[in-house]
Amino acid sequence: MPGLKDVKDKIGSVKKTAQITKAMNMVASAKLRGAQEKMERFRPYAGKFAEAMRDLSGGMESSDLPLMEVREVKTVEIVVVTSDRGLCGSFNANIIKSAEKLRKQYEAAGKTVSFVTVGKKGTQALKKTGKLRVAFNDIMGSFQMFNAREISQSITEAFLSGESDQVDVVYGKFFSVGVQRPVTEDLLPVKPVTAEEGDSKGKAEITGSYIYEPDPNEIMEVLLPLFLNVQLYHAMLEVGASEHAARMTAMDNATNACKDMIKELTQLYNKARQAAVTGELMDIVGGAEALK
Amino acid sequence: MAQIQLEVVTPNGAVVSEEVDIVTAPGVGGEFGVLANHAPFLSTIKTGTLSFKRDRTSKFLMVTGGFAEVSNNKITFLVESAEFGNDIDVDRAMRAKDRAEKRLTQAQQATEKISRVRAEAALQRAMARLRTAELARH
Q1: CA distance linking residue A48 with residue A100, whole number of Å
Q2: Is B40 in Cβ contact with A222 (below 8 Å)?
Q3: Res B37 pLDDT > 70
Q4: Could you tell me if B23 and B81 lie in one domain?
Q5: Is the pLDDT of residue B25 over 80?
Q6: Is residue A88 among the annotated active site residues?
Q7: Do B104 and B73 reside in the same domain of the chain?
Q8: Residues in B lying within 8 Å of A, measured between beta carbons
Q9: CATH code of the domain in which B130 resides
Q10: Using CA atoms, how far apart are residues A7 and A273, in angstroms rounded to an integer?
Q11: How many pairs of residues across A and B have Cβ atoms under 8 Å apart?
């Protein structure tokens, strides 16, 4: 039977932990709201952008744009977007795991792989592979479009110089507060966006009557790097929201675990106290008996 | 006077959404103006000053790269950032301009292409901010 004081101390410390995890849960839920609003604000821009891209690539002939150039793939660059901070369950571990899986797939096919990481957790985990090209740390807390631009500039330069022939991105997508899963998407070369069946006819007609300044190819040249920014920014937004949602769940679980533990410990404490009282009583009774 | 619906959308949400008389924008091929019932039109936008007029009052916005689309008597700007001239911090823009100029001379010596391009872009942004703020004050 553990000592009374030990149990009491233990209860105290578990209670403090529960307070912290509860506070973290609340902070995460407030931040999640912020992150979701940020996503909401981004939606009109992203939607309109995708629409224009579709219109344009529909009206384009062959694509001789460098960012759309499809080459024989020797080197694949994988952009891994994680959070900067931990304590959010298996969220980051899942992203890293699927990035590693992707690397093994590519390597099995005889391709070289390099990593670009966004977020400290991914950097820490992938540094030891020795394949890390660039790391962007400590920006996931409050990032803006220019952060995404910096990243896309780096991967564009690598792609254009022939250092990489294909770029993929792995990030944690926000499906709901309860579900976040790692997903993989293609970044470079940019694939021509094709209109969905059905509305393609109407779109083509509109495209034909547009006045372009400069011509569609030149517009596309300006738009492609911006499109890359949009995609990266979107991935970062998803990770931002997912991180907080994952932390909320993790902290909620931790708080519940603390509660269970406090319950068990309190029972243990009561038992130990009762044992002590009984012991003392026995002593007194024994002593009184001996005096008779 | 017939009006046209103006929308300025950035990744951080819509900045402007109103009916205006005329819009003047910094296109890549030069500045262009758009009035009501303009033909469908698509142009890329460079960093500069976007102005629009309504009831004889003009407003000025500093915008960075993106594009503009005109269709159905509506002009939509998709730009990476947009700031009203009145909200621009002139001192900060001045400092940014000095910094960019300094970096530009350094970059030219080092003949580093990437940092030169970046410094040029930063300088353009700072200049556009200052010009927009200047226009908005009058």
Answers
A1: 34
A2: no
A3: yes
A4: yes
A5: yes
A6: yes
A7: no
A8: 9-14, 27-29, 32, 39-44, 65-67, 69, 71, 76, 78, 80-81, 114
A9: 1.20.5
A10: 10
A11: 79
Q: Active-site residue among A88, A116, A170, A187?
A: A88
Contact call for B80 and A219, based on CB within 8 A: no
Are A80 and A42 contacting, i.e. CB atoms less than 8 angstroms apart? no
- pLDDT for res A124: 93
A96: buried, middle or exposed (CB in 10 Å: 19+, 13-18, 0-12)?
buried
Distance CA A10, CA A13 (A): 5
pTM listed for this prediction: 0.84
Residues B93, B66 share a domain: no
| CATH superfamily, with its number, for domain A4-26+250-283 | ATP synthase, gamma subunit, helix hairpin domain (1.10.287.80)
Domain identity same for B31 and B97:
no
* Long-range contacts of the stretch A143-147 (C-beta < 8 A, 24+): A143/A236, A143/A240, A145/A229, A145/A233, A145/B10, A145/B11, A145/B12, A145/B80, A145/B81, A147/A236
A213 → chain B, closest CA residue: B43
CB contact under 8 Å between A209 and B9, yes or no, is no
- Residues of A in Cβ contact (< 8 Å) with B14: 44
Do B110 and B53 reside in the same domain of the chain?
no
Q: Are residues B58 and B95 in the same domain?
A: no
| Pair of tokens at residue B39 | 């033909």
Which residues of chain A fall short of a pLDDT of 70?
A: 1-2, 58-63, 193-209
B33 and B46 in a single domain? The answer is yes
Mutate to test the interface with A, among B67, B83, B118 (most CBs of A within 10 A): B67
Looking at residue A99, its pLDDT comes to 94
List the single residue in A38, A48, A219 with the smallest CB-CB distance to B44: A219
CATH 3.40.1380.10 fits A35-248, yes or no: yes
Domain extent, residue B95, equals: 88-137
Q: How many domains does one find in chain B? A: 2
Give the residue from chain A lying closest to B42, CA to CA: A212
